[in-house]
Design brief:
single chain, 110 residues, mainly alpha
Length: 110
């Protein structure tokens, strides 16, 4: 794995979920196109909780799309209603990335 990172100098080489999402968003004529939205929502709904949350966090922090925040908040509320602790934390991790201090570890949910 470290050889790949050294060779490509990219986080995308280490995370196939993020790499696939980045490719799909980059290939879309508009980063907020239906295709890009579907790709991101598939990650939001993925059961690969850790990888999916990290991939979504990247796009949340980079673009701060309000439509994505609304979608994640809706799913978070549903997980709270159903008291699904695993999904509650999954969505909270995504929402934390909307905070300006997220990348430095000083974030609190905004």
């Amino acid at each position: 794995m470290s050889e790949i990172l050294d060779e490509r100098k990219s986080d995308l080489a280490a995370d196939p979920v993020l790499a696939e999402l980045a490719e799909r968003v980059a290939a879309a004529p508009d980063p907020e196109s239906d295709e890009a939205k579907r790709a991101l929502l598939n990650a939001v709904d993925s059961r690969e909780l850790s990888g999916a949350a990290e991939a979504v966090q990247y796009f949340v922090h980079r673009f701060r799309w309000s439509w994505l925040r609304e979608e994640v908040e809706r799913r978070h509320l549903d997980s709270l209603t159903r008291v699904d602790h695993r999904l509650i934390r999954h969505y909270e991790r995504m929402l934390e990335a909307f905070s300006p201090g997220w990348e430095t570890g000083t974030s609190s949910r905004a």
